Amino acid sequence: MRTLIKQGKSDAEIREFMVSRYGDFVLYRPRIKPETWVLWFGPFLLVIVAVAVLLTYLRRRNRAVEDPGLSQEELKQAQALLQGGDK
What is the DSSP code (8-state) at residue 76? Predict the structure, then answer.
């Protein structure tokens, strides 16, 4: 870059040289085109996926924690155990 500046190249010429040599990834704000969609939209997509995974995890965890209650047969067995019916 120093060489280009010493040669008296303009900012636009230097920018074009850098982009042609290294690609749009060297720019602070790369142009929006198919090759740079990941740079522009990747972070948003990653956040959306992370939120979806978190919500799915929390829903499954809540379902696992919920007490389904005891059936009538299980209630009778529990009462029998508490009253000492199996001695």
Answer: H
